[in-house]
Design brief:
By secondary structure, this protein is mostly helical. About 50% of the residues lie in helices and about 0% in strands. The longest helix is centred in the middle third of the chain and has 18 residues, at about 105-120.
Length: about 170
């Protein structure tokens, strides 16, 4: 019998029960469950219930240990602090250190962020044909230049003039 495929997975939790994956305790003991249950619940009966449920799927404590040793769980929580905060537009909030070492890579990352933002609001996100993308990218790069403490380079100012001419006709 072949084992698990061990492929990376990103799960989007619409129901709110995937954080239970963090409750994978190696021995399924009441002591492991106790800090995580409501005061009115009995950790021993919960641990027993979990062990019984897992056995119905032919899973044991050894499978839990294997799972915990081979999976890197991360809980990303947009708009909340209960897990790792997720800032979709963080590239626009804080200038990337890439600007100092690899401006082309920084520009590509900025372009991806602008594309994401445009998709979120239902606009054309193609950097090669979207006027919105061009304008927002130029504004975001200029803002990034100012936040890094420098004045935009001559190249950046010149490309901005070309963009204005192109957009304005």
């Amino acid at each position: 019998m072949q084992g698990p495929a061990r492929v990376p997975v990103v799960m989007i939790d619409l129901k709110g029960d995937l954080p239970n994956l963090f409750l994978t305790f190696p021995s399924l003991s009441a002591d492991e469950f106790a800090p995580w249950v409501e005061p009115s619940w009995d950790p021993a009966s919960l641990a027993t219930s979990w062990a019984e449920s897992l056995s119905q799927w032919n899973l044991s404590a050894a499978d839990i240990v294997d799972f915990r040793n081979t999976v890197a769980l991360r809980l990303l929580t947009p708009g909340a602090t209960s897990g790792e905060p997720l800032h979709i537009l963080s590239f626009l909030e804080n200038p990337s250190p890439l600007w100092a070492t690899d401006p082309e890579a920084a520009r590509e990352a900025l372009s991806a962020t602008v594309s994401l933002l445009l998709r979120l609001i239902g606009r054309d996100a193609d950097p090669t044909r979207s006027r919105d993308h061009v304008v927002l990218s130029v504004f975001a790069e200029r803002r990034s230049n100012r936040r890094r403490g420098g004045i935009a380079s001559r190249h950046s100012r010149a490309s901005g003039r070309r963009v204005r001419r192109h957009v304005d006709g």
